[in-house]
Design goal:
binds magnesium ion; mainly alpha; 204 residues; binds adenosine-5'-diphosphate
């Protein structure tokens, strides 16, 4: 099976297992639908994934982006779709897929989220997981680490960033309506991004 397709299948499983957990977190500081939203996207992916087998990696990313855009809804649907589309555009122009180009693709995805969400690290969002993870990935790639090691470093940094969202106040997204009352709960999007990273680390 195409490795990327295999990883995507595992991500869908991981999100499904954690659906209620993600929704509970979003009930604390949002509108209680994050797990439900992502699970809906996962179901659509499962239905369509067999048709991705023979596509190029960037085409797979684009296909997923389209499916998520029309099925996930919520801020996270738009943001994860944007990330995938930006990643696909970058990857399309890469001659090879290696640690360096995967790291650059990761950076392009994050830039997409920042632009679409008008957000940055430190605002209690998915970016608090993804930005440190991407920085750690690129640093490891520069040092000559292999893909497994790069994702291991990304995972460690992303986990720390995710955990830190518990201590900070949300200034973007629905959770920002709560102001200081958003402190004390993990950000659901930071947790879903962490779960995605964890799955990639496990499968790579
Ligand atoms: P909604 O907030 O529309 O109900 P979800 O519950 O599916 O959508 O997703 C909420 C998550 O989306 C948040 O936990 C946060 O991580 C992320 N998010 C929301 N707004 C932004 C933003 N402007 N930039 C980055 N991430 C955001
Ligand atoms: Mg929500």
């Amino acid at each position: 099976m195409n490795k990327l397709v295999q990883i995507i299948n595992k991500i869908v499983d991981k999100i499904e297992i954690n659906k209620d957990y993600l929704t509970d977190l979003d009930r604390e500081i949002g509108d209680g639908d994050h797990g439900v939203n992502l699970s809906r996207g996962g179901k659509k992916l499962e239905e369509n994934i067999s048709s991705f087998e023979n596509l190029k990696e960037y085409e797979v990313l684009n296909k997923i982006a389209m499916l998520l855009l029309s099925n996930v809804g919520g801020a996270s649907g738009a943001l994860y779709s944007t990330a995938l589309m930006r990643g696909a555009s970058y990857l399309k122009n890469c001659d090879t897929i290696n640690e360096k180009t995967i790291g650059e693709t990761f950076s392009a995805m994050i830039k997409g989220i920042e632009e679409r969400g008008k957000s940055t690290v430190g605002e209690k969002t998915m970016l608090d997981t993804l930005v440190p993870a991407s920085e750690a990935f690129n640093m490891a790639a520069e040092k000559g680490c292999n893909l497994e090691e790069c994702f291991q470093q990304a995972y460690i940094a992303g986990k720390k960033g995710m955990e830190y969202t518990k201590n900070i106040k949300a200034t973007k997204g629905r959770a920002s309506y709560l102001g200081d009352r958003s402190i004390g709960t993990l950000d659901p999007g930071a947790v879903s991004s962490y779960l995605i990273l964890e799955t990639i680390k496990e499968e790579i």
